[in-house]
Amino acid sequence: MLALFGTLEVFIKMGLVYSLLAMGYYVSYTLLDFPDLTVEGTFLGGAVTYGLLVTHGCNPWLALILAFLMGAAFGTLTGVLHVKLKIRPLLCGILVSTGLISLNLVATSAGVMGDFRGESASTITYGRSLTTLHNSFPADLIPAKIHGISLRDVLLFLLIALLFKLLLDLFLKTRRGMLLRATGNNAQFVTTLAKDAGNNKILGLAIGNGFAAVSGVLYSHVTGNVNQSMGIGTVVIGLASLIIGLSVFHKVRLLKPTTKVILGAIIYQACLTLVNRLGVPTAYNKLVMALLFVLALILGDRVLRRNTKSKKTQEKER
Amino acid sequence: MLELNHITKIYNAGQITETCLFNDFSLNFHDGDFVSVVGSNGSGKTSLLNIICGTIPIDGGAVLLDGKDISEMPEYARYRQIGRVYQNPAMGSCPDLTIAENMALADCKGKRYGLQRGVNGKRLAHYRELLSTLGLGLENKLDIPVGSLSGGQRQAMSLLMATMTPIRFLILDEHTAALDPKTAETIMELTDRIVKQKHLTAIMVTHNLRYAVEYGNRMLMLHKGEIVLEKAAEEKAATRVSDLLSLFNEISVECGN
Protein backbone atom coordinates (compact mmCIF):
# COMPACT_ATOMS: atom_id res chain seq x y z
CA MET A 1 0.00 0.00 0.00
CA LEU A 2 2.76 2.34 0.99
CA ALA A 3 4.67 1.43 -2.16
CA LEU A 4 1.61 2.33 -4.24
CA PHE A 5 1.42 5.74 -2.60
CA GLY A 6 5.12 6.14 -3.19
CA THR A 7 4.65 5.46 -6.91
CA LEU A 8 1.66 7.79 -7.05
CA GLU A 9 3.71 10.50 -5.43
CA VAL A 10 6.54 10.07 -7.92
CA PHE A 11 4.56 10.34 -11.12
CA ILE A 12 2.19 13.04 -9.92
CA LYS A 13 5.21 15.04 -8.84
CA MET A 14 6.95 14.53 -12.17
CA GLY A 15 3.72 15.26 -14.02
CA LEU A 16 3.38 18.55 -12.18
CA VAL A 17 6.99 19.41 -13.00
CA TYR A 18 6.40 18.88 -16.70
CA SER A 19 2.92 20.39 -16.67
CA LEU A 20 4.56 23.83 -16.74
CA LEU A 21 6.58 22.88 -19.79
CA ALA A 22 3.42 21.55 -21.43
CA MET A 23 1.47 24.73 -20.61
CA GLY A 24 4.26 26.70 -22.23
CA TYR A 25 3.90 24.52 -25.28
CA TYR A 26 0.18 25.13 -25.23
CA VAL A 27 0.97 28.78 -25.93
CA SER A 28 3.75 28.34 -28.49
CA TYR A 29 2.64 25.13 -30.21
CA THR A 30 -1.14 24.96 -29.94
CA LEU A 31 -1.97 28.65 -29.99
CA LEU A 32 0.80 29.93 -32.25
CA ASP A 33 1.58 26.73 -34.20
CA PHE A 34 5.30 27.21 -33.55
CA PRO A 35 7.28 23.99 -32.92
CA ASP A 36 9.72 25.50 -30.47
CA LEU A 37 12.92 23.58 -29.77
CA THR A 38 14.39 26.36 -27.62
CA VAL A 39 12.93 24.67 -24.54
CA GLU A 40 15.76 22.10 -24.54
CA GLY A 41 18.03 24.97 -23.58
CA THR A 42 15.70 27.09 -21.49
CA PHE A 43 14.54 24.16 -19.35
CA LEU A 44 18.12 23.69 -18.20
CA GLY A 45 18.79 27.43 -18.30
CA GLY A 46 15.98 28.06 -15.83
CA ALA A 47 17.44 25.50 -13.44
CA VAL A 48 20.93 26.97 -13.79
CA THR A 49 19.68 30.51 -13.15
CA TYR A 50 17.69 29.43 -10.13
CA GLY A 51 20.39 27.10 -8.81
CA LEU A 52 23.12 29.73 -8.98
CA LEU A 53 20.90 32.38 -7.42
CA VAL A 54 19.80 30.29 -4.44
CA THR A 55 23.30 28.93 -3.79
CA HIS A 56 24.41 32.56 -3.59
CA GLY A 57 21.73 33.36 -1.05
CA CYS A 58 18.95 34.78 -3.22
CA ASN A 59 15.35 34.42 -2.06
CA PRO A 60 14.07 31.26 -3.83
CA TRP A 61 10.81 32.83 -4.99
CA LEU A 62 12.68 35.78 -6.47
CA ALA A 63 15.08 33.28 -8.07
CA LEU A 64 12.08 31.46 -9.58
CA ILE A 65 10.81 34.69 -11.11
CA LEU A 66 14.26 35.54 -12.45
CA ALA A 67 14.52 32.04 -13.94
CA PHE A 68 11.19 32.66 -15.68
CA LEU A 69 12.51 35.95 -17.06
CA MET A 70 15.69 34.28 -18.27
CA GLY A 71 13.63 31.70 -20.16
CA ALA A 72 11.44 34.47 -21.54
CA ALA A 73 14.51 36.37 -22.73
CA PHE A 74 15.79 33.44 -24.76
CA GLY A 75 12.29 32.75 -26.05
CA THR A 76 12.25 36.35 -27.21
CA LEU A 77 15.54 35.75 -28.97
CA THR A 78 14.08 32.77 -30.84
CA GLY A 79 11.07 34.90 -31.75
CA VAL A 80 13.23 37.75 -33.01
CA LEU A 81 15.29 35.35 -35.14
CA HIS A 82 12.09 34.05 -36.69
CA VAL A 83 10.04 37.22 -37.01
CA LYS A 84 12.65 39.85 -37.79
CA LEU A 85 15.29 37.75 -39.57
CA LYS A 86 12.80 35.37 -41.20
CA ILE A 87 14.59 32.18 -40.11
CA ARG A 88 12.46 29.02 -40.10
CA PRO A 89 10.89 28.10 -36.73
CA LEU A 90 12.72 24.79 -36.26
CA LEU A 91 16.09 26.34 -37.07
CA CYS A 92 15.56 29.26 -34.68
CA GLY A 93 14.96 26.84 -31.82
CA ILE A 94 17.95 24.69 -32.73
CA LEU A 95 20.22 27.73 -32.96
CA VAL A 96 19.22 29.23 -29.63
CA SER A 97 19.21 25.93 -27.74
CA THR A 98 22.60 25.01 -29.18
CA GLY A 99 24.02 28.33 -28.08
CA LEU A 100 22.49 27.76 -24.67
CA ILE A 101 24.43 24.50 -24.24
CA SER A 102 27.62 26.57 -23.93
CA LEU A 103 26.01 29.38 -22.01
CA ASN A 104 24.56 27.02 -19.41
CA LEU A 105 27.85 25.23 -18.92
CA VAL A 106 29.88 28.43 -18.67
CA ALA A 107 27.32 30.01 -16.33
CA THR A 108 27.45 26.93 -14.09
CA SER A 109 31.22 26.81 -14.04
CA ALA A 110 31.52 30.55 -13.50
CA GLY A 111 28.82 30.61 -10.84
CA VAL A 112 30.15 27.67 -8.85
CA MET A 113 33.91 28.04 -9.26
CA GLY A 114 34.36 31.46 -10.84
CA ASP A 115 35.84 29.92 -13.97
CA PHE A 116 34.64 31.58 -17.16
CA ARG A 117 36.37 29.00 -19.34
CA GLY A 118 33.64 26.58 -18.32
CA GLU A 119 36.01 23.81 -17.30
CA SER A 120 35.66 23.66 -13.51
CA ALA A 121 32.13 22.63 -12.66
CA SER A 122 29.13 21.27 -14.51
CA THR A 123 26.68 20.62 -11.67
CA ILE A 124 25.08 22.74 -8.99
CA THR A 125 24.18 20.74 -5.90
CA TYR A 126 21.51 21.81 -3.44
CA GLY A 127 22.90 21.12 0.03
CA ARG A 128 20.58 20.14 2.87
CA SER A 129 21.00 23.44 4.66
CA LEU A 130 20.44 25.53 1.53
CA THR A 131 17.32 27.71 1.50
CA THR A 132 15.29 26.63 -1.52
CA LEU A 133 11.59 26.53 -2.42
CA HIS A 134 11.52 23.14 -0.72
CA ASN A 135 12.27 24.45 2.77
CA SER A 136 11.07 28.04 2.79
CA PHE A 137 7.61 29.57 3.09
CA PRO A 138 4.99 28.24 2.29
CA ALA A 139 6.36 24.71 1.73
CA ASP A 140 7.86 24.64 5.24
CA LEU A 141 4.32 24.64 6.69
CA ILE A 142 3.88 21.10 5.39
CA PRO A 143 5.52 18.34 7.47
CA ALA A 144 8.48 16.81 5.65
CA LYS A 145 7.07 13.31 5.88
CA ILE A 146 3.59 12.01 6.57
CA HIS A 147 3.55 8.27 7.33
CA GLY A 148 6.89 7.94 5.63
CA ILE A 149 5.80 9.65 2.44
CA SER A 150 6.99 13.13 1.52
CA LEU A 151 4.10 15.22 0.25
CA ARG A 152 5.89 18.52 0.50
CA ASP A 153 7.21 18.63 -3.07
CA VAL A 154 3.94 17.43 -4.58
CA LEU A 155 1.97 20.12 -2.79
CA LEU A 156 4.57 22.77 -3.56
CA PHE A 157 4.61 21.88 -7.24
CA LEU A 158 0.83 21.73 -7.30
CA LEU A 159 0.73 25.23 -5.86
CA ILE A 160 3.20 26.54 -8.44
CA ALA A 161 1.51 24.76 -11.35
CA LEU A 162 -1.91 26.10 -10.34
CA LEU A 163 -0.52 29.58 -9.82
CA PHE A 164 0.99 29.67 -13.31
CA LYS A 165 -2.09 28.05 -14.82
CA LEU A 166 -4.29 30.69 -13.23
CA LEU A 167 -2.07 33.51 -14.44
CA LEU A 168 -2.01 32.06 -17.95
CA ASP A 169 -5.78 31.63 -18.01
CA LEU A 170 -6.23 35.20 -16.87
CA PHE A 171 -3.75 36.48 -19.41
CA LEU A 172 -5.46 34.68 -22.29
CA LYS A 173 -8.67 36.50 -21.38
CA THR A 174 -7.09 39.93 -21.58
CA ARG A 175 -7.00 42.02 -24.73
CA ARG A 176 -3.36 41.18 -25.36
CA GLY A 177 -4.04 37.50 -24.64
CA MET A 178 -6.95 37.48 -27.09
CA LEU A 179 -4.73 39.13 -29.68
CA LEU A 180 -2.15 36.40 -29.11
CA ARG A 181 -4.75 33.70 -29.65
CA ALA A 182 -5.91 35.55 -32.75
CA THR A 183 -2.33 35.62 -34.07
CA GLY A 184 -2.13 31.83 -34.15
CA ASN A 185 -5.63 31.58 -35.54
CA ASN A 186 -5.44 34.17 -38.29
CA ALA A 187 -2.35 36.38 -38.41
CA GLN A 188 -3.74 38.46 -41.28
CA PHE A 189 -6.71 39.40 -39.11
CA VAL A 190 -4.33 40.78 -36.49
CA THR A 191 -2.59 42.79 -39.20
CA THR A 192 -5.88 44.33 -40.28
CA LEU A 193 -6.42 45.33 -36.65
CA ALA A 194 -3.37 47.56 -37.21
CA LYS A 195 -1.19 45.41 -34.95
CA ASP A 196 2.09 43.72 -35.80
CA ALA A 197 1.39 39.98 -35.68
CA GLY A 198 5.13 39.27 -35.33
CA ASN A 199 5.31 40.95 -31.93
CA ASN A 200 2.62 38.64 -30.62
CA LYS A 201 4.56 35.61 -31.84
CA ILE A 202 7.60 36.84 -29.95
CA LEU A 203 5.50 37.37 -26.84
CA GLY A 204 4.09 33.84 -27.12
CA LEU A 205 7.55 32.33 -27.40
CA ALA A 206 8.71 34.36 -24.42
CA ILE A 207 5.84 32.96 -22.34
CA GLY A 208 6.43 29.41 -23.58
CA ASN A 209 10.10 29.47 -22.63
CA GLY A 210 9.47 31.21 -19.33
CA PHE A 211 7.23 28.29 -18.43
CA ALA A 212 9.88 25.83 -19.61
CA ALA A 213 12.44 27.53 -17.36
CA VAL A 214 10.17 27.23 -14.31
CA SER A 215 9.62 23.59 -15.22
CA GLY A 216 13.40 23.13 -15.17
CA VAL A 217 13.60 24.73 -11.74
CA LEU A 218 11.09 22.26 -10.33
CA TYR A 219 12.89 19.38 -12.00
CA SER A 220 16.15 20.36 -10.31
CA HIS A 221 14.30 20.09 -7.00
CA VAL A 222 13.40 16.50 -7.74
CA THR A 223 16.98 15.49 -8.53
CA GLY A 224 18.50 17.73 -5.88
CA ASN A 225 20.97 19.20 -8.33
CA VAL A 226 21.36 20.87 -11.70
CA ASN A 227 23.26 18.88 -14.29
CA GLN A 228 23.96 19.70 -17.90
CA SER A 229 22.07 16.74 -19.38
CA MET A 230 18.69 17.44 -17.78
CA GLY A 231 17.36 19.35 -20.77
CA ILE A 232 17.64 16.43 -23.16
CA GLY A 233 14.28 15.16 -24.32
CA THR A 234 12.19 18.05 -23.01
CA VAL A 235 10.69 18.73 -26.44
CA VAL A 236 9.24 15.23 -26.59
CA ILE A 237 7.98 15.30 -22.99
CA GLY A 238 6.38 18.71 -23.41
CA LEU A 239 4.67 17.99 -26.70
CA ALA A 240 3.57 14.50 -25.68
CA SER A 241 2.03 15.81 -22.45
CA LEU A 242 0.28 18.58 -24.37
CA ILE A 243 -1.12 16.34 -27.08
CA ILE A 244 -2.19 13.61 -24.65
CA GLY A 245 -3.97 16.14 -22.48
CA LEU A 246 -5.78 17.85 -25.32
CA SER A 247 -6.80 14.66 -27.11
CA VAL A 248 -7.82 12.55 -24.11
CA PHE A 249 -10.05 15.31 -22.76
CA HIS A 250 -11.09 16.89 -26.04
CA LYS A 251 -14.74 16.22 -25.39
CA VAL A 252 -14.75 17.54 -21.86
CA ARG A 253 -15.97 21.08 -22.30
CA LEU A 254 -15.92 21.92 -18.61
CA LEU A 255 -12.13 21.71 -18.38
CA LYS A 256 -9.99 24.59 -19.55
CA PRO A 257 -7.24 23.65 -22.02
CA THR A 258 -4.61 24.48 -19.40
CA THR A 259 -6.21 22.01 -16.96
CA LYS A 260 -6.28 19.34 -19.66
CA VAL A 261 -2.60 19.94 -20.32
CA ILE A 262 -1.69 19.51 -16.65
CA LEU A 263 -3.64 16.25 -16.55
CA GLY A 264 -1.96 15.18 -19.79
CA ALA A 265 1.47 15.70 -18.25
CA ILE A 266 0.50 13.55 -15.26
CA ILE A 267 -0.92 10.80 -17.50
CA TYR A 268 2.27 10.75 -19.56
CA GLN A 269 4.42 10.37 -16.45
CA ALA A 270 2.07 7.69 -15.14
CA CYS A 271 2.57 5.71 -18.36
CA LEU A 272 6.34 6.04 -18.04
CA THR A 273 6.26 4.91 -14.42
CA LEU A 274 4.03 2.00 -15.34
CA VAL A 275 6.46 0.88 -18.02
CA ASN A 276 9.29 0.97 -15.50
CA ARG A 277 7.22 -0.95 -12.96
CA LEU A 278 6.62 -3.63 -15.58
CA GLY A 279 10.33 -4.30 -15.52
CA VAL A 280 11.72 -2.14 -18.31
CA PRO A 281 15.05 -0.69 -17.07
CA THR A 282 15.28 3.10 -16.77
CA ALA A 283 18.00 3.19 -19.43
CA TYR A 284 15.21 2.56 -21.93
CA ASN A 285 13.24 5.57 -20.70
CA LYS A 286 13.99 7.98 -23.55
CA LEU A 287 13.11 5.29 -26.08
CA VAL A 288 9.88 4.57 -24.28
CA MET A 289 9.18 8.32 -24.15
CA ALA A 290 9.60 8.59 -27.90
CA LEU A 291 7.39 5.57 -28.54
CA LEU A 292 4.69 6.87 -26.21
CA PHE A 293 4.85 10.18 -28.07
CA VAL A 294 4.33 8.42 -31.40
CA LEU A 295 1.32 6.69 -29.88
CA ALA A 296 -0.01 9.99 -28.58
CA LEU A 297 0.47 11.61 -31.99
CA ILE A 298 -1.40 8.86 -33.80
CA LEU A 299 -4.26 8.82 -31.31
CA GLY A 300 -4.33 12.62 -31.08
CA ASP A 301 -4.38 12.90 -34.85
CA ARG A 302 -7.29 10.48 -35.09
CA VAL A 303 -9.25 12.39 -32.52
CA LEU A 304 -8.56 15.70 -34.21
CA ARG A 305 -9.34 14.36 -37.65
CA ARG A 306 -12.61 12.95 -36.44
CA ASN A 307 -13.38 16.36 -35.03
CA THR A 308 -12.70 18.25 -38.23
CA LYS A 309 -14.62 15.66 -40.19
CA SER A 310 -17.67 16.04 -38.02
CA LYS A 311 -17.34 19.81 -38.32
CA LYS A 312 -17.29 19.56 -42.10
CA THR A 313 -20.30 17.26 -42.24
CA GLN A 314 -22.10 19.63 -39.93
CA GLU A 315 -21.39 22.46 -42.32
CA LYS A 316 -22.63 20.40 -45.23
CA GLU A 317 -25.82 19.57 -43.41
CA ARG A 318 -26.35 23.25 -42.88
CA MET B 1 -7.15 61.70 -50.76
CA LEU B 2 -5.26 58.56 -51.70
CA GLU B 3 -2.93 58.73 -54.68
CA LEU B 4 -0.97 56.12 -56.55
CA ASN B 5 1.85 57.93 -58.35
CA HIS B 6 3.74 56.33 -61.22
CA ILE B 7 3.67 52.87 -59.64
CA THR B 8 5.90 50.14 -61.03
CA LYS B 9 5.35 46.58 -59.92
CA ILE B 10 7.42 43.71 -61.25
CA TYR B 11 6.85 40.09 -60.27
CA ASN B 12 9.75 37.60 -60.18
CA ALA B 13 12.30 40.28 -61.01
CA GLY B 14 15.47 38.91 -62.53
CA GLN B 15 13.98 35.53 -63.24
CA ILE B 16 12.90 34.01 -66.51
CA THR B 17 9.28 34.40 -65.42
CA GLU B 18 9.68 38.16 -64.84
CA THR B 19 6.45 40.01 -65.53
CA CYS B 20 5.89 43.70 -65.29
CA LEU B 21 2.36 44.21 -64.02
CA PHE B 22 2.23 47.96 -63.48
CA ASN B 23 4.40 50.35 -65.42
CA ASP B 24 3.97 54.04 -64.58
CA PHE B 25 0.49 53.41 -63.17
CA SER B 26 -1.26 56.41 -61.60
CA LEU B 27 -4.66 56.65 -59.97
CA ASN B 28 -6.39 58.95 -57.47
CA PHE B 29 -9.13 58.15 -55.00
CA HIS B 30 -11.06 61.15 -53.74
CA ASP B 31 -12.64 61.19 -50.31
CA GLY B 32 -16.12 59.75 -50.40
CA ASP B 33 -15.54 57.80 -53.61
CA PHE B 34 -17.07 54.37 -53.94
CA VAL B 35 -15.00 52.85 -56.72
CA SER B 36 -15.73 49.48 -58.23
CA VAL B 37 -12.91 47.79 -60.06
CA VAL B 38 -13.47 45.05 -62.63
CA GLY B 39 -11.13 43.15 -64.91
CA SER B 40 -10.13 39.66 -65.95
CA ASN B 41 -7.86 37.39 -63.94
CA GLY B 42 -4.33 38.70 -63.77
CA SER B 43 -5.34 42.23 -64.72
CA GLY B 44 -3.93 43.61 -61.47
CA LYS B 45 -7.06 44.22 -59.40
CA THR B 46 -5.94 42.42 -56.29
CA SER B 47 -2.35 43.68 -56.72
CA LEU B 48 -3.78 47.20 -56.76
CA LEU B 49 -5.43 46.60 -53.38
CA ASN B 50 -2.32 44.93 -52.00
CA ILE B 51 -0.20 47.91 -53.05
CA ILE B 52 -2.58 50.32 -51.33
CA CYS B 53 -2.52 48.25 -48.12
CA GLY B 54 1.21 47.54 -48.27
CA THR B 55 0.75 43.77 -48.44
CA ILE B 56 3.22 43.67 -51.33
CA PRO B 57 6.14 46.06 -51.90
CA ILE B 58 6.33 48.29 -54.98
CA ASP B 59 9.30 48.59 -57.29
CA GLY B 60 8.86 52.23 -58.19
CA GLY B 61 6.60 55.23 -57.67
CA ALA B 62 4.82 56.20 -54.47
CA VAL B 63 1.60 55.73 -52.54
CA LEU B 64 0.47 59.06 -51.10
CA LEU B 65 -2.08 59.60 -48.37
CA ASP B 66 -3.17 63.24 -48.08
CA GLY B 67 0.03 64.13 -49.91
CA LYS B 68 2.24 62.18 -47.50
CA ASP B 69 4.32 59.32 -48.87
CA ILE B 70 3.32 56.08 -47.12
CA SER B 71 5.20 53.70 -49.45
CA GLU B 72 7.55 52.65 -46.65
CA MET B 73 4.85 52.32 -43.98
CA PRO B 74 4.43 48.67 -42.90
CA GLU B 75 1.19 46.94 -43.76
CA TYR B 76 -0.18 46.76 -40.22
CA ALA B 77 0.31 50.49 -39.65
CA ARG B 78 -1.70 51.38 -42.75
CA TYR B 79 -4.70 49.50 -41.41
CA ARG B 80 -5.12 52.21 -38.76
CA GLN B 81 -7.11 54.03 -41.43
CA ILE B 82 -8.11 51.10 -43.59
CA GLY B 83 -10.65 48.33 -43.09
CA ARG B 84 -10.43 45.32 -45.36
CA VAL B 85 -12.75 42.45 -46.23
CA TYR B 86 -11.35 39.50 -48.14
CA GLN B 87 -12.81 37.11 -50.68
CA ASN B 88 -12.37 34.22 -48.26
CA PRO B 89 -14.85 34.66 -45.39
CA ALA B 90 -12.37 32.87 -43.08
CA MET B 91 -9.88 35.72 -43.40
CA GLY B 92 -11.91 38.33 -41.58
CA SER B 93 -12.28 36.68 -38.17
CA CYS B 94 -10.77 34.09 -35.84
CA PRO B 95 -12.48 30.68 -35.97
CA ASP B 96 -11.50 29.53 -32.46
CA LEU B 97 -12.55 32.73 -30.73
CA THR B 98 -16.17 33.37 -29.87
CA ILE B 99 -18.31 35.96 -31.60
CA ALA B 100 -18.04 38.22 -28.55
CA GLU B 101 -14.25 37.88 -28.48
CA ASN B 102 -13.96 38.63 -32.17
CA MET B 103 -16.20 41.67 -31.81
CA ALA B 104 -14.19 42.85 -28.81
CA LEU B 105 -10.91 42.54 -30.72
CA ALA B 106 -12.31 44.54 -33.61
CA ASP B 107 -13.78 47.06 -31.19
CA CYS B 108 -10.32 47.75 -29.73
CA LYS B 109 -8.71 48.54 -33.06
CA GLY B 110 -6.72 51.72 -32.68
CA LYS B 111 -6.56 51.34 -28.91
CA ARG B 112 -3.91 49.68 -26.78
CA TYR B 113 -4.07 45.91 -26.49
CA GLY B 114 -2.90 45.67 -22.90
CA LEU B 115 -3.87 43.60 -19.91
CA GLN B 116 -7.38 44.96 -19.63
CA ARG B 117 -10.23 42.49 -19.58
CA GLY B 118 -10.59 41.20 -23.14
CA VAL B 119 -14.36 41.26 -23.45
CA ASN B 120 -15.79 44.25 -21.66
CA GLY B 121 -19.21 43.30 -20.31
CA LYS B 122 -20.50 46.83 -20.75
CA ARG B 123 -19.91 46.67 -24.49
CA LEU B 124 -21.87 43.44 -25.01
CA ALA B 125 -25.16 45.27 -25.44
CA HIS B 126 -23.54 47.39 -28.14
CA TYR B 127 -22.24 44.26 -29.93
CA ARG B 128 -25.69 42.70 -29.78
CA GLU B 129 -27.22 45.80 -31.26
CA LEU B 130 -24.68 45.91 -34.09
CA LEU B 131 -25.12 42.20 -34.83
CA SER B 132 -28.88 42.51 -34.87
CA THR B 133 -28.60 44.94 -37.82
CA LEU B 134 -27.37 41.97 -39.85
CA GLY B 135 -30.66 40.15 -39.29
CA LEU B 136 -28.91 36.79 -38.97
CA GLY B 137 -29.70 36.10 -35.33
CA LEU B 138 -26.01 36.27 -34.38
CA GLU B 139 -26.83 38.57 -31.47
CA ASN B 140 -28.05 35.53 -29.53
CA LYS B 141 -24.95 33.46 -30.21
CA LEU B 142 -22.26 35.63 -28.67
CA ASP B 143 -20.56 32.72 -26.93
CA ILE B 144 -20.18 30.31 -29.81
CA PRO B 145 -16.92 30.12 -31.79
CA VAL B 146 -16.98 31.92 -35.12
CA GLY B 147 -15.62 28.79 -36.84
CA SER B 148 -19.05 27.16 -36.54
CA LEU B 149 -20.80 29.90 -38.52
CA SER B 150 -21.55 29.63 -42.24
CA GLY B 151 -19.51 31.50 -44.84
CA GLY B 152 -22.20 34.13 -45.34
CA GLN B 153 -22.56 34.74 -41.61
CA ARG B 154 -18.80 35.04 -41.23
CA GLN B 155 -18.55 37.45 -44.15
CA ALA B 156 -21.32 39.63 -42.74
CA MET B 157 -19.46 39.68 -39.43
CA SER B 158 -16.17 40.47 -41.19
CA LEU B 159 -17.76 43.47 -42.85
CA LEU B 160 -19.26 44.65 -39.61
CA MET B 161 -15.97 44.20 -37.75
CA ALA B 162 -13.90 45.90 -40.43
CA THR B 163 -16.05 49.00 -40.13
CA MET B 164 -16.68 49.04 -36.38
CA THR B 165 -14.08 51.63 -35.51
CA PRO B 166 -13.51 54.98 -37.24
CA ILE B 167 -11.66 54.28 -40.48
CA ARG B 168 -11.42 56.24 -43.73
CA PHE B 169 -10.98 53.58 -46.35
CA LEU B 170 -12.78 50.32 -46.92
CA ILE B 171 -11.05 47.80 -49.15
CA LEU B 172 -13.31 45.10 -50.53
CA ASP B 173 -11.46 42.28 -52.25
CA GLU B 174 -14.13 40.30 -54.18
CA HIS B 175 -15.91 40.04 -50.88
CA THR B 176 -19.07 38.48 -52.32
CA ALA B 177 -17.36 36.00 -54.64
CA ALA B 178 -17.43 33.02 -52.28
CA LEU B 179 -21.09 33.44 -51.34
CA ASP B 180 -24.33 32.12 -52.80
CA PRO B 181 -26.29 34.66 -54.92
CA LYS B 182 -28.82 35.52 -52.25
CA THR B 183 -26.26 35.97 -49.48
CA ALA B 184 -24.06 37.94 -51.88
CA GLU B 185 -26.96 40.29 -52.52
CA THR B 186 -27.54 40.77 -48.79
CA ILE B 187 -23.85 41.47 -48.15
CA MET B 188 -23.74 43.95 -51.04
CA GLU B 189 -26.71 45.87 -49.69
CA LEU B 190 -25.15 45.88 -46.25
CA THR B 191 -21.89 47.16 -47.73
CA ASP B 192 -23.64 50.01 -49.50
CA ARG B 193 -25.52 50.94 -46.32
CA ILE B 194 -22.37 50.99 -44.19
CA VAL B 195 -20.35 52.96 -46.74
CA LYS B 196 -23.07 55.61 -46.95
CA GLN B 197 -23.69 55.71 -43.21
CA LYS B 198 -20.03 56.11 -42.29
CA HIS B 199 -19.03 58.23 -45.31
CA LEU B 200 -16.23 55.86 -46.19
CA THR B 201 -14.02 55.90 -49.24
CA ALA B 202 -14.51 52.43 -50.64
CA ILE B 203 -12.60 50.48 -53.25
CA MET B 204 -14.33 47.31 -54.34
CA VAL B 205 -12.86 44.67 -56.62
CA THR B 206 -15.53 42.44 -58.08
CA HIS B 207 -16.15 39.92 -60.82
CA ASN B 208 -19.83 40.65 -60.71
CA LEU B 209 -20.40 43.22 -63.45
CA ARG B 210 -23.89 43.97 -62.20
CA TYR B 211 -22.59 44.99 -58.79
CA ALA B 212 -19.92 47.11 -60.46
CA VAL B 213 -22.60 48.92 -62.42
CA GLU B 214 -25.19 49.19 -59.65
CA TYR B 215 -23.03 50.28 -56.75
CA GLY B 216 -20.65 53.17 -56.31
CA ASN B 217 -20.07 56.43 -58.09
CA ARG B 218 -17.01 55.44 -60.08
CA MET B 219 -15.96 52.41 -62.05
CA LEU B 220 -12.67 51.18 -63.46
CA MET B 221 -11.81 48.35 -65.75
CA LEU B 222 -8.26 47.07 -65.55
CA HIS B 223 -6.46 45.05 -68.17
CA LYS B 224 -2.83 43.98 -67.95
CA GLY B 225 -2.05 46.63 -65.39
CA GLU B 226 -3.69 49.49 -67.27
CA ILE B 227 -6.98 51.28 -66.91
CA VAL B 228 -8.91 50.54 -70.06
CA LEU B 229 -12.19 52.08 -68.97
CA GLU B 230 -13.10 54.68 -66.42
CA LYS B 231 -16.52 56.08 -65.78
CA ALA B 232 -17.74 58.37 -63.04
CA ALA B 233 -20.95 60.07 -61.84
CA GLU B 234 -23.69 60.38 -64.52
CA GLU B 235 -21.59 58.68 -67.11
CA LYS B 236 -21.35 55.69 -64.84
CA ALA B 237 -25.02 55.77 -64.03
CA ALA B 238 -25.76 55.44 -67.72
CA THR B 239 -23.53 52.39 -68.15
CA ARG B 240 -25.20 49.03 -68.65
CA VAL B 241 -23.89 45.57 -67.86
CA SER B 242 -24.03 44.77 -71.59
CA ASP B 243 -21.61 47.64 -72.36
CA LEU B 244 -19.09 46.20 -69.93
CA LEU B 245 -19.60 42.70 -71.18
CA SER B 246 -18.90 43.61 -74.82
CA LEU B 247 -15.69 45.40 -73.80
CA PHE B 248 -14.74 42.36 -71.75
CA ASN B 249 -15.25 40.12 -74.78
CA GLU B 250 -13.12 42.37 -76.98
CA ILE B 251 -10.26 42.17 -74.52
CA SER B 252 -10.59 38.42 -74.20
CA VAL B 253 -10.47 38.00 -77.98
CA GLU B 254 -7.28 40.08 -78.03
CA CYS B 255 -5.76 37.73 -75.49
CA GLY B 256 -6.75 34.75 -77.58
CA ASN B 257 -9.11 33.28 -74.99
Question: Could you describe the 3D structure shown?
Answer:
Chain A contains 11 helices and 2 strands. By secondary structure, chain A is mainly alpha-helical. Chain A has a domain of 217 residues. In chain A, helix 2 packs antiparallel against helix 3. Chain A starts with a helix and ends with a helix. By secondary structure, chain B is an alpha/beta fold. Chain B is 34% helix and 24% strand. Chain B contains 9 helices and 10 strands. In chain B, the strands form 2 sheets. Chain B has a 6-stranded mixed beta sheet with strand order 6-7-8-3-9-10. In chain B, helix 5 runs parallel beside helix 6. The radius of gyration of chain B is 19 Å and the shape is globular. The chains are: A mainly alpha (318), B alpha/beta (257). Chains A and B meet through helix 6, helix 7 and helix 11 of A and helix 2, strand 6 and helix 3 of B.
Q: Give the low-confidence spans of chain A.
A: 309-318
Question: Structural class, from secondary structure content of chain A?
Answer: mainly alpha
Largest interface pair: A-B, 26 and 38 residues
Subunit organisation of the chains: heterodimer
- Give the integer mean of the pLDDT values of chain A: 90
Describe the main β-sheet of chain B briefly: 6 strands, mixed
Secondary-structure map:
The complex is a heterodimer of chains A (318) and B (257).
Chain A (H helix, E strand, L loop, with lengths): L1 H30 L7 H17 L4 H24 L5 H25 L9 E3 L26 H22 L1 H11 L1 H6 L4 H27 L1 E3 L6 H15 L8 H21 L7 H33 L1
Antiparallel strand pairs in A: 1-2
Chain B lengths: L1 E10 L7 E11 L4 E6 L5 H9 L6 E6 L2 E2 L5 H4 L3 E4 L13 H9 L16 H9 L18 H12 L6 E5 L7 H18 L2 E5 L3 H6 L3 E6 L2 E7 H5 L3 H15 L2
Parallel strand pairs in B: 3-8, 3-9, 6-7, 7-8
Antiparallel strand pairs in B: 1-2, 1-4, 4-5, 9-10
Helix pairs in contact in B: 5-6
